[in-house]
């Protein structure tokens, strides 16, 4: 068989009520030359049986059954067992517009970008999601031929992995994979570790993905239940990214921008959320910045970034 144009990787765990709709939109893509790699991460319900049923009826569907190890390990398994020129990630309770792969492929023929970003929709409307989610999935048409920190501030660049398609050559060149031990914010880390090395990032304004932001039993629901724990995880993930950037010399060039992003990512939550131990969280962030030698850029912060940094110093004492 010829190399598929696009590999769709779907990590699956106990989603018997959702996976059929997800797969229907994948096998129904208007671009036929794709493969759909489903990683059954030790599901205990009928998910595995449903996946096998689809694989028996469509040779493009491949199923890998494995012992449960989390979404990051499942996605890594999908990457290593896929063959497409491009890789797209779909969560098993979400679904695609049936033209998604075709539009991504057409965009890849237009330029040499290593990453293509598209827009999406938030479902369901009730309970009502946070307003920033609606904004974050709306993309505009633009191309960044080379990396600048502005790429990371573009809508769609973060935090939603499933709005993006990655050229396989980029992942082979960087060697970046998901951190197996991290199950919350792993997509943000993956993005920050790949985007600086992409030979171009294209943003298109087509809305091609349907993100189910809420369902009972989801990992996201569990991860956001404890606000202090969630914020602490965010700070830990900043440390993972900062360490990666430091090792590769990226902080020497983008240190001020990274510092401004880091404090802007955390401090508004420390000010607004009903957290139990704000000083402890502020000290955790301060320690991450100190460990990665980011505080040396603080004198260059202005505006909101400077205010957030000063607020961190005040909160930690």
Name the features.
317 residues; alpha/beta; Spore Coat Polysaccharide Biosynthesis Protein SpsA, Chain A; 9-stranded mixed sheet; 17% strand
3D structure, described in words:
The protein has 2 domains: 6-215, Spore Coat Polysaccharide Biosynthesis Protein SpsA, Chain A (Alpha-Beta Complex), CATH 3.90.550; 226-316. Strands 1, 2, 3, 4, 5, 6, 7, 8 and 9 form a 9-stranded mixed beta sheet that branches. The chain has helices spanning 19-27, 47-57, 71-80, 100-110, 131-136, 149-152, 168-174, 186-194, 219-223, 227-247, 250-272, 278-291, 303-316; strands at residues 6-12, 34-41, 61-66, 86-89, 95-96, 115-123, 142-144, 164-167, 201-212. The chain is built from 13 helices and 9 strands. The protein is of the alpha/beta class and 317 residues long. The longest helix has 23 residues, at 250-272.
Q: Topology of this structure?
A:
Elements: E1 6-12, H1 19-27, E2 34-41, H2 47-57, E3 61-66, H3 71-80, E4 86-89, E5 95-96, H4 100-110, E6 115-123, H5 131-136, E7 142-144, H6 149-152, E8 164-167, H7 168-174, H8 186-194, E9 201-212, H9 219-223, H10 227-247, H11 250-272, H12 278-291, H13 303-316
Parallel strand pairs: 1-2, 1-4, 2-3, 6-9
Antiparallel strand pairs: 4-8, 5-9, 6-8, 7-9
